[in-house]
Design a protein that fits this description.
The complex is a heterodimer of chains A (207) and B (433). Chain A is mainly alpha-helical and 207 residues long. Chain A has a domain of 127 residues. Helix content of chain A is 35%, strand content 4%. Chain A has a two-stranded antiparallel ribbon with strand order 1-2. In chain A, a hairpin with a 5-residue loop joins strand 1 and strand 2. In chain A, helix 4 packs across helix 5. Chain A is extended, with a radius of gyration of 23 Å. Chain B has 3 domains: 48 residues; 114 residues; 194 residues, Dimethylsulfoxide Reductase, domain 2, CATH 3.40.228.10. Chain B is 38% helix and 18% strand. In chain B, the strands form 5 sheets. Chain B has a 4-stranded parallel beta sheet with strand order 8-7-15-16, sandwiched between helices. In chain B, strand 2 and strand 3 form a beta hairpin. In chain B, helix 8 packs antiparallel against helix 10. The longest helix of chain B is centred in the N-terminal third of the chain and has 21 residues. Chain B is globular, with a radius of gyration of 32 Å. Classes of the chains: A mainly alpha (207), B alpha/beta (433).
Chain lengths: 207, 433
Amino acid sequence: MSLGRTPVRILMLVLAVAVTGSFAYAFSNVRKGYEPRQPILFRHTRMAGTPVWQTDATGAKVNVGGFGIPCVYCHTMPYKGRHSTVPSTAVCMNCHTSVGLGREWVLKMKDYWDRGEPIPWVKVHDLPDFVYYDHSAHLNAKNEKGEPKIPNKDAQGKPINQCEACHGKVETMEIVSVQNTFNMQWCLDCHRKPDMKAPTDCIACHR
Amino acid sequence: MNPNETSAQPDASGLDRREFLRLSGTLAAAGALASAGCQPPQEQTIPFHDMPESLVDGMGRARFFHTVVDGSPVLVRTREGRPILVAPSPTDASGRGLTVRHQAALMDLYDPDRAKGPVSVRRGKGPTVASSWSVVGAEVVSRLAKAGSGAVLLTGPVASPSLAAAIAALSAHTGLKHVAWSPVEPDAAASACGQAFGSSSAPRPRLDKADLVLGLGAEFLDRPADGLERDFALRRSPDQAEGTKMSRFVQLEGRLTLTGANADKRIRVRDSQLAPLACALAHELVVVKRTGPLAGNAAVEAALAPFAVDAVAKTAAVPAEQLKALAGELAAARGKALVLAGGSASGSTAGEALELAALLLNVSLDAFSAGLFDEAAAELLPSGSAKALEALAGEMHSGKVTLLVVAGANPVYDAPASLKLAEALPKSPSSSP
C-alpha cells in the first residue's frame, strides 16, 4: 500500500463512524418522551390541571378542566426527602370515597383498595441505581438573596411550579412522560450554570 | 491485477465501496441495538397501600423491628422497607451476641427461591400451584379433624416459647402428636449434664474469663453458636488491658479442626481415646495431685483408678510426660482454667463419657465455683429428637400415622438414611406447609 493512500483510508473510516455514530446518537436517548401506560388511567390534567368552568345544558356551572390539587398533596416528600414518592392509595381514597364513583378507572382503583393491594404504577423517571439524586436538596436550595435556586417564578414574577424545571408541565399531561433527557449531560448543564453553584464533581452524583 | 480478484482489493480510494458499506452497516446495526435493544428495564413504583403517618422515605432514617432468628432475639434494621442488617437485640439479657448464621439469615430474605407464599403440591398431579393461606388453613384443619389421634406434627427445633405454647394448645385440642427433629443436637452433653446436675440445662462457658482453655475435641470456632467464639477472641489479642493476659488454649483432637488450628498447643489423639485421656487427666489432678473438692472422695478415686496416666498414655500413644505437664498446667491455673468437650468426639459413642469427664475436670478445677460458667445464661440443651424421629419412622412404616404435618423440617434430606423416611412417607398422608 502506498503512503498516499493511508490518509484517505483513515478519512473514509472516520466518515463512516461519524455518519453512523450521529444516527445512533440521534436515536439513542431512551428517556426523553418515554410515556409508559399506567395500570390506572390517572390523568394529571384532571387532578392537578387548572379548572375550566363551563355552563352545562341545565345552566349549572361545571368544571371540565382540572381540580388544581397541589402536587405536594399527593407527592408528599419532594421538600423533605430524597424521593417525591407516589401517593399511597389511601390518599386517593381521601376524596374517592365520595366523588367520581361512577367512573370506570375510579372503580378499578377502588378494586385495588378493597383488595388491600398497592397500585403497581410504572416508573416514568428512572435514573440508573449508580446515580444519586435528591429532591429535597434541589427544591430547598437557596441563593444568597434567599430565593430558591430552582425558580418558583418566571421573568414577569408570575409564580411557576418548581417541578417544571425538570418535569415540564405535568398538570397538562394526560399521561406523564419524560420531558428532558435526564442523562448526565443534562444534569451537568444545569449544575454548571453560574447562578446554580451546584456541585460538578463526580462524587456528588456517584456516591 | 488478477481479473479474478475483484472487490476484495482496495481500490484507489483506499476503502472500497463494499468495505465502506459493510463498515457502516455493522456500525448502524450496533447503534440500533444500543438504542432500541438496550431500553432500560421497565420498573414499578409500588407505593404503600396506606402509608404510615410521619414516614419519610430516603430521609436517612432507618426503621427497626424485633424478631427471632435461630432462637435468638434480634433487631433487624430496614431502609426503605428493605432489611439490611441483623443486629443483636439490645434487650437480650443473655449477652450471647449473634453468629454468622444470624447475620446470614438476611440473605434468605433475598433468596430468589424462597417461598413467597403457600403453594399446593399434589403427589403425582403435576407441578406446584400457588395457593393461599385461607385454602391451606382450611384444608389442614379439615384433615386434622378427620385424622384423629393418628396425626403427627413434625417440626424443626422449637426455641420459641410462644410457638411451643401454640403447639401445646393445638395438641390439647386435636390430639396431635408433636415431634421436633433437629439433625444436630448436643445429645451427649445434655445427658451428661442430666446425670451430673439432675437437669439437662447447661451453664454457658465464659471463655473470656479463662486464662487456660483445654479443648477435648471442642469445635466452638467451627460451628459458631452462642457467641463463644466472640468471648474466646476477646482474650486472644496480644493487646490486653492491664491486669489480664492473653489466654492459652490447648486442644486435644483427632481430625484437624479450625478450632484446633487456632490452639497454642494441639495434641493429636484418636477421638475414641479422648474420654480415657480426659479421665487420665482427672486421675492425675484428683488422685495424684489431690486438687479440687473431689480429692479424697473414695468413690471418685475408685472410679478413676483404671485411668493412671502411664497406662492410658500408652494405649492412646501420647507421651505420658506431656499429659503430666498438662495436668500440672491445669492445676496451676485452678480457678482460671476451663475444659470444653464437643464436636465429633462428643457425637461419637463415647461422647457421653467424654462430656462427663469434662464436667469432672471442671469441678476439680473449681471452674463452676470460680464463675467461669455463667449460671444465669444457662440453656436447656435440646436432645432426644433422634430417638423420637426413629419412633415416628417406625409408626410411619407400620401405617399408624394417619396424617403427617411437616413444618420447618426436611427429614428426608437430613435424617439418617437407615430410617428410610422417603419410603415411609407415601404410607402416611402428609401435608407440609
